[in-house]
Amino acid sequence: MTLQWYPGHMTKARRELVALLPSQHFVIEVLDARLPLSSQNPMLAELRGNKPCVKVLTKSDLADPAMTALWIAHLQRETASKVFAFAATTNNPAYSRKMISIAAKKFGFVYRLGKPVRAVIAGVPNVGKSTLINVLMEHNVAATGDKPAVTKRQQRVELKDHTVLTDSPGMMWPKIEDERNAMRLAFAGSIPSTAIDFHTTAMISAEYVLEHYGTVVAARYKLDAVPDSPAALLTEIGRRRGGLRAGGAVDLHQASEIFIHDFRSGKLGAITLEQPPAAPDLGM
Ligand SMILES: Nc1nc2c(ncn2[C@@H]2O[C@H](COP(=O)(O)OP(=O)(O)OP(=O)(O)O)[C@@H](O)[C@H]2O)c(=O)[nH]1
Ligand SMILES: [Mg+2]
């Protein structure tokens, strides 16, 4: 299944980001902590060039904490001094405020009278960019929502410490090369329901989830054993929750929707969909 979603407004979002970037001191790239690799927009990396970047792994309350720690270490190690990575959750807004401030100082940007530090918040749709700006502002200034493409245009705000932040619309790129990356983005909700096939998305994602979090999934659906295949899992979910079609067949579409929804909302458990490459052995 090929999955492409690059509506016209994203061309405009890209153009506006290109126009804004030269005036920005650094970029705040928001990544979904459950898929820190797949939620990296390669177009953004290209546009950002050498500009310092804070990588914020949002929704960390929904991700596997051990994996998040590995990802932070990986991002920090990979990209040295121009990147500062941390994990964020709306459960701990003070931590996000502190880390952004530390990052700006680490990059050497401090407020001088009349010369604010400027940063743009960017990333793929629905990862929590506008939520982050609300957290940093300490009150709601940007619309948020549990679906992609809520933010339609850039929005500039000024923090108490005079940092000027710009929220930007979620951006995809014209062609997602790796089908599995596309599938993870769909599973996590960065691609709208109208553009995805629920059953295929659930089947492909369930394979990884069963392999790495099988017992968590079995507990969630009160199964006696870990199902031995994605199809078996969806059938069990369908039997228990999705209802049956006329003739007794399981409604797999409905079961897929339940599985996807349970993952997105965290009901499935704290799950991360991809692992960072192993750390190099330093022989110590
Ligand atoms: N559980 C949890 N949900 C979060 C967190 N941060 C954001 N969300 C939810 O994620 C959804 C998307 O948040 P937004 O801030 O609208 O995402 P966005 O990146 O601005 O999305 P677009 O503007 O559409 O690109 C909302 O339902 C938020 O409540 C978090 O730390 N934990
Ligand atoms: Mg937004």
Task: Explain this structure.
The protein is an alpha/beta fold. It folds into two domains: 8-167, Rossmann fold (3-Layer(aba) Sandwich), CATH 3.40.50.300; 197-265, Conserved Hypothetical Protein Ylqf, Chain: A, domain 2, CATH 1.10.1580.10. Helices cover 42% and strands 11% of the residues. The protein is built from nine helices and six strands, in the order αβαβαβαβαββαααα. The chain has helices at 8-20, 42-48, 65-79, 93-107, 129-137, 179-188, 198-220, 230-242, 252-265, and strands spanning 26-32, 53-58, 83-87, 118-123, 155-158, 164-167. The chain has a six-stranded mixed beta sheet, sandwiched between helices. A hairpin with a 5-residue loop joins strand 5 (155-158) and strand 6 (164-167). The longest helix has 23 residues, at 198-220. The model has no long low-confidence stretch (mean pLDDT 93). Bound molecules: guanosine-5'-triphosphate and magnesium ion.
